[in-house]
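Before the break, one more example. Copy the sequence into your notebook; we will annotate it together after we see the structure.
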Amino acid sequence: MKRLSLLLSLLVLTTVGCSDSGQNGAGSGGIDGGGTTASVDGPKVAYVTNGIASFWVIAEKGAQDAGAKVGANVVVRMPPNGVEDQKRMCQDLLAQGIDGIAISPIDPDNQGDLLDEIAQHTNLITHDSDAPESARKCYVGMDNYSAGRMCGQLVKEAMPEGGSVMIFVGRLGQANARLRRQGVIDELLDRSEDNTRYDDPNAGEIKGEKYTILDTRTDGFDFGKAKAQAQDAIAKYPDLGCMVGLFAYNPPLMLEAVREADKVGKIKIVAFDEDEATLQGITDGAIHGTTVQNPYQYGYKSVEILTALAKGDESVIPEGGFINIDARNIRSDNVAEFWAELKRLTATDGGGEAAAEESSEAAPAEEAPEAASEEAAPAEEAKTE
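Here is what the structure looks like once it is written out:
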């Protein structure tokens, strides 16, 4: 877990760094980082993220553990600067004759050509954020709209009497971010379930009977900007009741801003994902709770599937094309148990693979609920993502 804290610290210092972290043999990638694991005779598969964050360090560990188990050479790429970096990395992988790519599309509505190009030349699956209109073979992840509603439930617990809420997220161009945000809003406004609904983030305040969503702030994976926006919100809204961070790096930066303003406890914090600083914040009582995914399993299952496909085994693709890995809410009463599990999964002594088999969160494959509707909402422009 020290690596997660170190990575986050380095990234904050450099805003969004672009150093090659693949030299340590882990196979991770800065702008051109990468490495391989397992036998040189095995398939070569790639795991491509949508940015650089502690969340992806956990996913990388899962991908590498799976590669060691199934005999695949795994390359991980983490684009630091958005769509163009992701495109270039994927095209470079195709030029190398990669046997499969698992990608978290940054802007699926506008990356159709890239996804088609990948699918024409190798096996394509998506993870974390889906692109159901593409030729991907399956999606490994969770129902982001439902997870957003789970996050909204944490807000209700933190502020049962109601109040004002600010949402912070890296970008809204990708489907998972839009769906999470909408899930939070719909839960706070006690709306019916509808993952095609979309409240324009530029339309001003969204008022409900008890809760008001003041604004949604995006930062484009710029950590310095993310913290500055949290600071600005604290200064602009004296009655701000709760801050919600939807990407892994948002909550720790929000917490820094709240601490510096001496408003811990006065402004509630609700998080997404399992950054070490977030879990410590829950332990300390400074953060109410977090809705977590299972990035380790995202990486692990993606490599398992790509390796099987490379060997001609199509049976790994479920009907409906959705491999569901459930989200869960972490609060003070279960944070210690969850954190211990996370440490086992990300152990560097080979314990991660065994722990993954014992505590996998992957539920039986099922059809994605109205999967095509994930792309119904319009993508935001790059600078407002």
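The chain has two domains: 2-142+294-327+349-365, 144-292. DSSP finds twelve helices and 13 strands in the chain. Try to locate both features in your own notes.
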